[in-house]
Amino acid sequence: MPLLHIAKLSKRYGTDKYALDSIDFTVATGEFVAIIGPSGAGKSTLLRCINHMIPMTSGDVLIADASTKSMNATQLRAHRTQIGMIFQHYNLVNRLSVIENVLHGRLGYKSTAAGVMGWYSNAEKQQAVEILQNLGLSDHMYKRCDQLSGGQKQRVGIARALIQNPKLLLCDEPIASLDPSAAKIIMDTLKDINQRLGITIIVNLHQVDVAMRYAQRIIGINSGKIVCDAAPHSLTPDIIHEVYGSEAGELILDFGEQHAHA
Amino acid sequence: MHTLDFFTKKRLSFGLFVVVLLGLTYVTIIFTEYNVAKGFTSIPKAIRWATTNFYPDAASLKKLPSILLKLRDTVMMSVASATIASACAFFVAIFGAQTTRINVWFSVFARGIATIFRNIDVSAWALILLFSFGQSSFTGYFALFFVTFGFMVRVLIETIDEVSTDSVEALRATGASYFAIIAQSVVPSCLPQLVSWVLFMIETNIRSATLVGILTGTGIGYSFDIYYKSLNYHAASLVIIVIVISVLAIEAVSNWIRRAVL
After folding, report:
1. N or C, which terminus of chain A has less Cβ within 10 Å?
2. Per residue in B39-93, pLDDT tens?
3. Is B166 within 8 Å of A115 when comparing Cβ atoms?
4. Would you state the pLDDT for residue A254?
5. pLDDT tens digits for A55-83?
6. Which among A81, A90, A115 has CB closest to B180?
């Protein structure tokens, strides 16, 4: 049974052309999927339609064969608690401590009163500490997030998503603001989460080489349509040029080396 | 367009602006029969008068306790109007800010009220309210309240949209409820700016309250008015000195608080 089924999903902003045009694919439990495509292709919109941060125009998103098309506010919150999200700009509350930001991941499970007051159980606090230890942040637990480096902030973002006990992680350009070594740590962390915890991961990426190295499956999007959906090793330069709508030789790609590594 | 033409045109339009401004100044001088030379030459005369009459003497110092009592009224009124108006403004700003608004119409409405309250000057409010409340502390209090409210709604809307958009998105994605998002993300993110603006409004209100007091017959402004009109310049000057000292003291205190909070 697929974990996620995107069924003829379309999104149109106002009367502009379609940002997403009949997107259709399924993701099995435990998959690591990378979505590539030029800026403005609809990658972020696609990710945000899955957890209904952006309302879709038509089509459906099915989680474990259950439609999420028409949900009331309570069902929507329950839907979102199952899906962790990681952002390019980390989206932390910078003035709060690391552990407080991690615990924010539990808010989806709480009543409004408990959420407003920030009442977390001891078990939740213990889980936050364990996740931070696993991500190598135990020394920074009580530091304010604005004192951390970009890579550390992104790991806090990952911890906040993990404490939701999600079935699915949506990562929107998680390494676009990071230097290469921090980016590698983040991608290795995601890979580890995928393999060790069996959490399904969908990640939007700008770096084709990173997508090829880490993902089991690559979906290419251009102008709101799926251009390719394949395993990394079957991706040829021609297909990639089609995804980016460019002529051969116009992209910064190092194919030979990538294949050697992959 | 020629590059030369571009710069000539820019210089011409600036020249035209200066000419229009000078012309306007000249016309207003003619209409008001303002004598520029006499205006400047009377400054030394005014200083001479102030140094011979406008200083506190021994007799006026006896009035100090009653002046300080009036000062206390004015300061209390300023603080109360600033804090309560800011608290109200925060709720309205939440509905007005793009990040946290419930729908567009709430937002338009909130911004609309803010504009009306802010753009009517505090002395105009005092005059309007004199009809309803007469010469009482209520008039001054509400005049300060309305202006503070309008100003704070405006700056808090901007603050919320500036500092909390990203983290609000992240908390929405975890499934947190609306009020939990406000309490856990918007409030901690905005807190330093909120405190800073409230302190600013307290300072501003103390200055305005003095002026408003002359109109409404309350507080330290009224003391000044009475002494000045009864030609007791020594006591009037003491009032001014007391106001200056208190404004400087409050500014020092608020700067200290700002540093502690940030």
Report:
1. N
2. 899 999 999 988 888 888 888 889 899 999 999 999 999 999 999 999 999 999 9
3. no
4. 59
5. 999 999 999 889 998 899 999 999 999 99
6. A115
Whether this model's pTM surpasses 0.95: no
- Residues A217, B161: Cα–Cα separation, whole Å: 37
Tally of helices (H runs) and strands (E runs) in chain B: 12, 0
User: What CA–CA distances, in Å, run from A170 to A45, A205, B51, B226?
Assistant: 12, 11, 74, 70
User: Which residue in A53, A76, A93 is closest to B185 by CB distance?
Assistant: A93
- The superfamily in CATH containing domain B63-261 is MetI-like (1.10.3720.10)
Confidence of residue B197 (pLDDT cuts 50, 70, 90): very high
Here the ipTM equals 0.91
If one counts every other C-beta atom within 10 angstroms of the C-beta of residue A186, the result is: 22
**For A230-255, how does the pLDDT look when each residue is reduced to its tens digit (9 = 90+)?**
999 998 888 888 888 876 566 666 55
With beta carbons less than 8 A apart as the criterion, state whether A210 and A232 touch: no
Q: In sequence order, which residues have a C-beta less than 8 Å from that of residue B226 and are 6 or more positions away?
A: none
B180 with A164: Cβ contact below 8 A: no
CA–chain centroid gap for B88, Å, is 17
Distance CA A141, CA A127 (A): 13
Q: What is the DSSP letter of B85?
A: H
Distance from CA of A94 to the nearest CA of B (A): 7
| φ and ψ of A141, to 5 deg | -50, -40
Residue A261: band (very low, low, confident or very high) from pLDDT cuts 50, 70, 90: very low
Torsions phi, psi for A3 (to 5 deg):
-70, -45
CA distance linking residue A142 with residue B93, whole number of Å: 31
Instruction: Choose among B184, B191, B192: nearest Cβ to A107.
Output: B184
For chain A, the first-to-last Cα distance in angstroms comes to: 29
